[in-house]
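Morning - adenosine-5'-diphosphate inputs below, output right after.
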Amino acid sequence: MGNVDFALTVEDLTVSFDGFKAIDNLALYIDKNELRVIIGPNGAGKTTLLDLICGKTRASAGSIKFKDEEIIGLPEHVRVRRGIGRKFQTPSIYENLSVFQNLEVSYPSGRSVFGALAFKCTEEVRSRIEAVAAEIGLPDKLETEAGLLSHGQKQWLEIGMLLMQEPELLMLDEPIAGMSAKERDLTAELLHRICKNRSVIVIEHDMDFVKKIAHKVTVMHQGKILAEGSMEKVQADPKVIDVYLGH
Ligand code: ADP
């Protein structure tokens, strides 16, 4: 089912590890500018699903179409170039570099971190860095060493590093883990800004945060989709209460 209105179309997706189906014939449709949250108990297959979409894990069968093009056979770095960004839970910023330099080395030019530091920043790169710094709420921290940022600011910087590559789909794994209440609120605002012109998929356990950010919620269980829809709809679903929310 090709449909250019969907940013991402996943159909019949299956991956087996030693005969165990971690993802079992799953279908998922993400709209342009949609912020989708995936919830479900530990071991449901949430991380594996994102691994399959970004190419970290190879599928056993099925189709993953991004902007109506099949990407299932493409390696991870090619999917990044096509516009798929993924943030993992552990931060991967360069603590000894400034916020500006962290964003600069993330500009998609294939330069290494050392090459980038010797490289004279063009106006185009500089204006992209400034736009991204404003988007992630760190416009006045450009000269700050990344290691001196708060935990939340480091997480936003990492999102900014992904935004430098101009993704059209951004996937985030528990983006508010370890954050203060204030940082959580700012992260919700950041995600709303990001999905104005990109699609976003978030794995999250904090239901208050899910309610704040989700356009639509997908509940996974045993490698399949158990329920999907608005937060109000899925939280009233007896199947969802039984396997997840009731615990
Ligand atoms: P979730 O993110 O929902 O907690 P995961 O996607 O991490 O769930 O895991 C789903 C299931 O797949 C789990 O039973 C896990 O042990 C299994 N699994 C994930 N990756 C692998 C792997 N590389 N090899 C074997 N089993 C795996």
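Note: The mean pLDDT is 92.

O.
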